[in-house]
Design a protein that fits this description.
Layout: E1 3-7, E2 10-11, H1 17-24, E3 26-30, E4 39-41, E5 44-46, H2 48-60, E6 63-67, H3 72-80, E7 86-87, H4 95-98, E8 102-103, E9 106-117, E10 136-139, H5 143-152, E11 161-163, H6 168-176, E12 182-186, H7 187-193, E13 200-205
Parallel strand pairs: 3-6, 3-7, 10-11, 10-12
Antiparallel strand pairs: 1-9, 2-7, 2-8, 4-5, 9-12, 9-13
Length: about 210
């Protein structure tokens, strides 16, 4: 079981970029359109990560400009290509990511969790071995993809599908509708959405 932290902000920039941000008058932040990060209400933009980014921009005395890539890899590409200064999108840390990016102090912890459709008389899996041959769905470019690739070294028959076209909640929808057998998502994602999915449960944590 691996515990991941959720940093408030992720940066690919040096400290000198702070002066660039102040002189330009704009903080460019990459985020995703998800319930935990950023979404639009009738009153305007909302979301926990959005509020964090807005507060940071106000602290710096600059305007906030959002970049909203469709995928997780798109978030990191935005800061590598200097289209954004920071990521604020509930991304997890990992050893591979920490070699390339600077993470802020985490505000929460998350564990990759296997989600299944609760059925009477059906016992959920208790290990990755029991999931071999099943239809597993995860987000492309996610920490879960890194974990499964490492596990595949010990379980060569393990397979899964990665998607760039869905959000974490879309993946939960797929499990709920029994279109896939399992999803692997951040525990914080499922915990925040579990009330909308009374037919889903946690099998085990990676």
């Amino acid at each position: 079981m691996l515990l991941f932290s959720l940093p408030a902000l992720v940066s690919y920039n040096t400290t000198s970029q702070l002066e660039v941000i102040k002189s330009s008058g704009t903080l460019r932040v990459a985020t995703r359109n998800t319930p935990a990060s950023y979404f639009n209400e009738k009153e305007g933009p909302a979301g926990f990560e959005y509020e964090l980014a807005l507060a940071f921009a106000e602290e710096l005395g600059v305007a906030l400009e959002l970049q909203v890539p469709d995928t997780i890899p798109g978030l990191f590409r935005a800061i590598r290509q200097r289209d954004a200064h920071l990521i604020a999108a509930s991304v997890n840390t990992s050893e591979a990511r920490e070699q390339l990016y600077d993470f802020s102090t985490p505000y929460a912890s998350s564990i990759s969790t296997v989600i299944y459709r609760v059925r009477q008389g059906v016992t959920p899996p208790e290990s990755i071995e029991e999931m071999i041959g099943s239809n597993i769905l995860i987000l492309k470019g996610s920490v879960q993809a890194e974990q499964l690739n490492r596990l595949k070294e010990y379980h060569p028959l393990l397979s899964w599908t990665e998607t760039n076209e869905l959000t974490s909640t879309d993946i939960l929808d797929k499990v709920f509708a029994e279109e896939v057998d399992f999803a692997i998502v951040d525990s914080t994602v499922f915990d925040s959405q579990s009330s909308f999915y009374p037919g889903l449960g946690k099998a085990f944590m990676l």
